[in-house]
Amino acid sequence: MASPLTMYVQIKQDAVSQELAEKAVANFTQGVQAGLDAAEIVHYATLALVPNPATTPGTPASGYMGLLLMTDFDLAMNPYLETFWNAGGGIKTAIQGIALIAYNPVPPINTLTDFQNFINSVNLTPAPTSGNWTNFYQAYNLTVKQINAD
Amino acid sequence: METTTRNAPERKNVQGLILKGYTHPYSCHLLFQLPGSTQSPGSTPTELSQQQTFFKALYSHVQSAEDWGVYKPVSMLNIGLTFNGISKLDPAIIRQQDLQRFPVTFREGPASGGSQQSLGDNAGKNNKSNPQNWWNGQGDAVTNNLDCIVHIYSLTEEDLEILIAYVLDAAKTNGLTEFIPLLPAIKNGRLYQSIVDKDPAKIHFGYTDGISEPSLKPSEGTPSAESNNNFVIGYPQDALTVPGPTGEDTASIFAKDGCYNGFRVIHQDVAAFNRFLKNPTTDPAVMQQLQQLKLETSLEEWLAAKMCGRWRNGSPLMLSPDKPAHETSHEENFNYSVTDASGHKDDITSSLRCPFSAHTRVANPRDQQMVAAEGTFVPRIVRRGVPYGPTMDDQVVVDDGQDRGLIGLFLCGDLAGQFEKIYGWMNNNNFSGKEIFSVRKPPQDALLGDKTAANSDAFPGTVTSFIIPVDANNKITIPTLPNFLVTRGTAYCLLPSMETLGRMAGV
């Protein structure tokens, strides 16, 4: 079971939000490493800053339009978002932090339901009803545990 | 609206079937589309009035969880609403902008891609359980428009029919559309409860059902997966699975003291099950292994018990490993793990009695150790299901074309964290470590795993074989289990509180 999560969050343009976004990216791996290692279901996770578009072609842009989290984990999305919500380390904090600097207002993420609703609302690759992905490729369908078992 | 912070719901405000299992021998479950629209600007005043009049007509028949005393009500009903149905209600009861506060799993429903990741009805090739085939082939036409399920219970067939007629009349008068979920030729295609083997406790396949249920007692300060905090919305203090939404918004107020229902109609192929028990494999070596067992019961009964984890009378294999026993037939007090003096937990030895993939062990692994991704507790669900369709004798091995199965009401506070997580476990036994389940080729729940979905992208590597340990050095592997079940339909409903139903009814 692959659950690709492509989470795009447009962020505020003020200096504090922009700086927090940079810090979120700089500290991402360190913050989530322990929790994701323990879960043993995440294939990879990357958090990137999406640059603002250039105002004039050929001129460098400044600042960031948003944050893009791309990950792929085993098992079904919604039952196992609980794993990340309850995992130690910085996963919950990272998501709550991203929600705080989101350009579009996000209701406070205080509960697992809030967390699931937020993640699903910004996921650009939801599971297709047919079960057949049209916008997701994987070279293998092994789980992390199956790979680690070799 | 009560605003005090009680740590347990008042029984009089909770619909009855949530906190108590009815034992009424007659029931029927009616599916409706409400008048109105989920799209802006919403239902018209006329449609809202029709909705209110319908719920008002039913309200006095709704059974709460309050003690009914010595005499059971002769007939009664409970009401569930899908997210679609809630979206049609009066904005004065629940504001449109608050609807998104409901959990995404409830909002998107069981046919959604997210839910199907666990349920697996759409997985594998030509899966008969595919949501497109649900509701006797009506598929999305019902799934996307189903708003309301009315669960009607009665002590007599006559009284059941009287209340059904009353509800149908109220529905017709107020512009509701009834959906017929099964083949119309039988019982008008409605979901009537049936009695299997003249025993209301039995389901098709011959098992006694409903033995293992969460206690649903208030937590009293000690978090437990069994307590009603995990099932009734609004009491997160000591819940392990936190039902939502909770807050001050109108969705949270609407949902408080309610409970979710994973309503699932499952066809059971009794003839295939009987055939399997009589001839479980075409592999002569495996058949010889089975025939050489020194059993105190027939091989059929032994196999049926190994697949379920309980004998058909209810006795758990952990307490009655060799034959069913009357004194253990409703026993709940057992575990699978043994801790030795050095603190080492042994989950393996118990498999000599109860195989790891036996249904009751998968659906409730109790104290069996789980992998880190599963968290720290075993989620529970409340089951209020009943059989439908005529009894088939356990000697019959050729299908008679009649539809029969289970009308499953799986109650929980968190559809994703309880119902879907357990369903995912049944389709893919991967929730415990490699000492218990093969990592490369994990098995499925012997009874409820969707064999068509095995080794699909949804459940990579899963196999349909069934391992039965017989002693410390030997095990029997049934190479292939057939599919015994087909999903006929699924709906996610909220069973609102009595207070919320009262507001819907305008009383």
TrEMBL record, chain A:
Name the record gives this protein: Uncharacterized protein
Annotated organism of origin: Taibaiella soli
From TrEMBL, chain B:
Region (Disordered): 105-136
Cofactor: heme b
Stretches with biased composition (Polar residues): 113-136
Coiled-coil region(s): none
Signal peptide: none
InterPro entries noted in UniProt: Dimeric_a/b-barrel, Dyp_peroxidase
Any GO CC annotation of this UniProt entry: cytosol
Entry annotated with the keyword Metal-binding: yes
PROSITE patterns: DYP_PEROXIDASE
Keywords linked to the UniProt accession: Iron, Metal-binding, Oxidoreductase, Peroxidase
Top-level taxon of origin: Bacteria
A single GO molecular function term of this UniProt record: metal ion binding
Protein name: Peroxidase
